[in-house]
Amino acid sequence: MAGVDKFGAAFAVGFMVLMLAFMGGLTPGNPDSIMSPPPQRDLMEEQTQAMLTPPPIIPSQPESSSSSVVEENLTGVLRYTISGGLVENISPGGEENSIKIDLDTRLDGQFTIYITPNVIESFSDGSYFVLVDGEENHEFIQSQNKLTIDFLAGAEEIMIFGEQSDMYSMDHEAAADKAAADKAAADKAAADKAAADKAAVDKAAADKAAADKAAADKAAVDKAAADKAAADKAAADKAAADKAAADKAAADKAAADKAAADKAAADKAAADKAAADKAAAAAAKAPMSAEVVPVAGSATPGCEPECYDPSTVTISAGGTVTFVNSDTAPHTVTSGTATDGPDGVWDSSLIMIDMSYSVTLDDSGSYPYFCMVHPWMQGTIIVE
């Protein structure tokens, strides 16, 4: 709306200048006026200059109050600029000698306005009193009749007061107190509404909680009834199963007695065979300890697959394998493979030259191992 009003005012001024220039060209005593109209370019320059030239800064004149502006809409009367938002309307304030600027702002910004004495009469010292959303603003910049006022995003109203205002003829402190009181009243009204809204929300939540509890209670009763019916059926099924089981147990006992006799005979035969097998196994049992050394020069590739001597060793469960580093480079002995990495059964860390490491294995199985420094060195321990 402000942009349209400014354009209309500028257009009217330009049009008036054009008409005056034209009429001047027709003045009697200027015989060349009809034949020599002013150049079109000069007229356009005059219009453009009229549109771009700001209104003159007029010092305050107390005597001019008799010609004060009474229009309800001052948007097209006062010149202004704004950044960070829009001016919705400029109108006389609710107090004498004041104006109200309605804003629609989305960002922090700045509002600049040129005050004329026929709209607002300044205080005796040439100053004005400014409120932004009801809060006194001491930070605005005044240069004669030009006021530059900063505002925050969301600001909705700027009030400017001059001398003889019914409300602001009092000192600034009293005006600020009243503005604070008005804001407190507005804040209280907003708080009361928020409290009422919260009470309504709380009641709705309580009603929903009660309904949810009733539904949960009914669901619990229904589940208890279903559980009892299932339990009764299970009891009947169990009684039938118990009888069938008793009948089967009698038959099974008779069969078991016969099987026991047969088993006793078989057990005796098995015991005799186990004793014979044990004696044979004792004669061929694997040793409880073994020693492994790295092949000389195994720190460089080429010793594969016999980089340990022996590369495969067999011990009995509970036996111990000792690795003695008789090579010229440190090695590790780590369970796992170079492809899949350590498996966590054991890890010797570095075995320095002429040092040793021992591992005891209680569970039978096959245990691959390798050197983490020289991964081509691989071996296997078999536990029987």
Describe this structure in words.
This protein is α+β, with helices and mostly antiparallel strands and 384 residues long. It is elongated. Mean pLDDT is 82; it is low at 24-70 and 166-170. Among the domains are: 1-53, no CATH class; 55-169, Immunoglobulin-like (Sandwich); 289-383, Cupredoxins -  blue copper proteins (Immunoglobulin-like). Helix 1 runs antiparallel to helix 2 (40-52). A hairpin with a 7-residue loop joins strand 15 (365-370) and strand 16. It contains three helices and 16 strands.
Summarize the SSE layout with pairings.
Layout: H1 2-25, H2 40-52, E1 80-92, E2 98-114, E3 129-132, E4 135-136, E5 141-143, E6 146-151, E7 157-161, H3 172-284, E8 289-294, E9 308-309, E10 312-315, E11 319-324, E12 334-337, E13 341-347, E14 356-361, E15 365-370, E16 378-383
Parallel strand pairs: 8-11, 10-16
Antiparallel strand pairs: 1-2, 2-6, 2-7, 3-4, 3-7, 5-6, 8-9, 11-14, 12-13, 12-15, 15-16
Helix pairs in contact: 1-2
Helical residues, percent: 25-40%
Low-confidence runs: 24-70, 166-170
Order of H and E elements: HHEEEEEEEHEEEEEEEEE
Number of helices: 3
Straight-line N-to-C gap? 99 Å
CATH topology of the domain at 55-169: Immunoglobulin-like
Number of strands: 16
Overall average residue pLDDT = 82
Strand proportion, as a percent range, falls in 25-35%
CATH architecture of the domain at 55-169: Sandwich
Q: Which of globular, elongated, flat, extended, rod-shaped describes the shape?
A: elongated
Overall radius of gyration: 53 Å
Structural class: alpha+beta
Reading off the top of the CATH hierarchy, the class of the domain at 55-169 is best stated as Mainly Beta
What can be said about the biggest beta sheet? 7 strands, antiparallel
